[in-house]
Amino acid sequence: MSDTQTAPAPAPRALPPLMQMTERAAARLKKLYEGANKGQLLRIGVNTRGCSGMSYDMSFVDTVSPGDERVTDHGVDVLIDRKATLFLIGTVMDYEVKDLESGFTFTNPNEKGRCGCGESFHV
């Protein structure tokens, strides 16, 4: 008879969030969800285009696709296109208001560079 015991399996390590939002981005999305985009969710993806090869794609959708990942931050939901998840891990979405423009911006730790105009990036 053996007195050896099996050690319990270690608890799985928590995964980093797929994406996060700043309070400004969440506040802007809440306003959009309550107004013109009521009943819709923002889906974020990545498309192949631009001089650096990839660009962020955002669209409001009425239904969740089977391949969508739902991210909730600051009480606000966004959808991530499953094909974009590897490119977006660790990304922070913000909302910036400047003198001549305003919009959502992304700080993506996976980016290796951006084109000069800022419209596209590469990983």
UniProtKB/TrEMBL annotation:
Domain Core: 19-119
PROSITE patterns hit by this protein: HESB
Entries under Pfam families matching the protein: Fe-S_biosyn
Record family assignment: Belongs to the HesB/IscA family.
NCBIfam families: iron-sulfur cluster assembly accessory protein
Protein name: Iron-sulfur cluster assembly accessory protein
Organism lineage: Bacteria, Pseudomonadati, Pseudomonadota, Alphaproteobacteria, Acetobacterales
